[in-house]
Hints:
Blueprint: H1 3-8, H2 15-22, H3 26-39, E1 42-48, E2 70-76
Antiparallel strand pairs: 1-2
Amino acid sequence: MSLLELLDSPGVHTAAQLAADLGTTPEMVEAKLEHYARLGYIKKTILFAGCGEGCKACPGCSGLKHSAASITYWERVH
Length: 78
């Protein structure tokens, strides 16, 4: 499965998760993601610790607070 195909699947996609699915490093995936973002194929969203108050507005998010200060996820632009 390709990187763009993975981004078409439901849920929140982090570079680490995508790298594990593709059998490569998060750094390699991040470089490809940034390239696709520049081309307009995908968009990057950064959620900060204030998110997760049960809104469930983000695709695939459970609405639970994230333990990290921020989380970056990627999604396809259609």
